[in-house]
Amino acid sequence: MTYPANYSLNQQIRHVLYALKRQYGGTVTVYQNETVATDTKTGEVTRTKTVTLIHRAVVLPVTISRELKQSISVISANKMTVMGGNFEIGKRLFIIERRDAPNLVLQECDWIGYNGRRYAIENFEEYEFDAAYIVTGKEMPGEILIGGGSIVEEDGDTMINDNAWAIVIGTPVYVKPNGRADKAGADIRATVEVFGLVKDTLIPSGVAGMIQTHGTLLATMTEWDAVAGTAGGLTPGRVYYLDATVAGKMTEIAPSTPGQFVARLGIALSATQFDIDTELPIRL
Predict the structure, then answer these.
(1) Domain spanning 7-153, CATH architecture
(2) Which of 62, 82, 63, 80 has the alpha carbon at shortest distance from 72?
(3) Cα–Cα distance between 230 and 147 in angstroms, integer?
(4) Per-residue pLDDT tens for 208-238?
C-alpha cells in the first residue's frame, strides 16, 4: 500500500471517505472467480471463488452518486473540474477504501453482493495514492447470490515493525513514509494518524505482523493493562483515545493541551474486547 507525501491532500480524501462511511456505510461482499474445472466424463462444471467481506464500504443512492463522483474527482485530481457520468436505474456507486481491504485486487469480471442483490462491475477507478476503489455496479435482476467459496474477511494488513523495540498486542500504530509501522502518538501530526492496533501478541523489531484496522480485538486483561494503563482490563462502554504523552499507548482521558491531538481509537465492549473505530485526529 502506497502512502502519499502530500499529507494535506491525503487528509482531505480521508475526511471525505470517513464522512461518507458515517452517512452511507454498508456491508458488501466482493466475489472473485478463482478457477473453473470441467469434468470430461459428466460435463459438470466446478467453480471456486473467493468472497471478500467488507464491513464499511460506501453504498450510494443513484442521485447522490452522480454528484459525489464529481466532487471526489476534484479533490483527487486537484485540477480542473472533472465531470461525472450518467447513471441509469439499476446502477449503484460503491466506494471501497483501500485501508479496509488492503489485499483486494479488483477486476471487471468480479461482482458485488449487497442487500441480497448481485451487481456486476461495469467499471471501476483506482484513485490516487491507493485511496479507494470507485465502482459502478449494475444490478443483475433475477440473479440470486449463492454461498460457498473461500471467505476472506479483511480486517487489517500485515506490516513490518519499524520501531527499535518489539510492539505488543493492542498498540496503536501509524504508517511511516517507508510503509512500515511504528508506535503512534497524539503529540505531533507526523505520528497521530492511527492505521490500526497490533493484532499479534508481539511483533519483534524488523519483523512483519498483523495490524487490525477495525472490528473487535480480543486480548487478555493483562495485555490491555500494558497499553491502556488500566488495572483489570478495559472499562466496558468507555471510549479510548491515543495517548499524547507516551507513544503506542491508549487512554480513557482525551488530550487537552493546545497543540496536541484528539484521536479516538474506539470503545471497550468488555474488559478484554475492544471495538476498533478510529476517527480522524482533531488538533487542539
Answers:
(1) Beta Barrel (2.40)
(2) 82
(3) 43
(4) 999 988 788 999 999 999 999 999 999 999 9
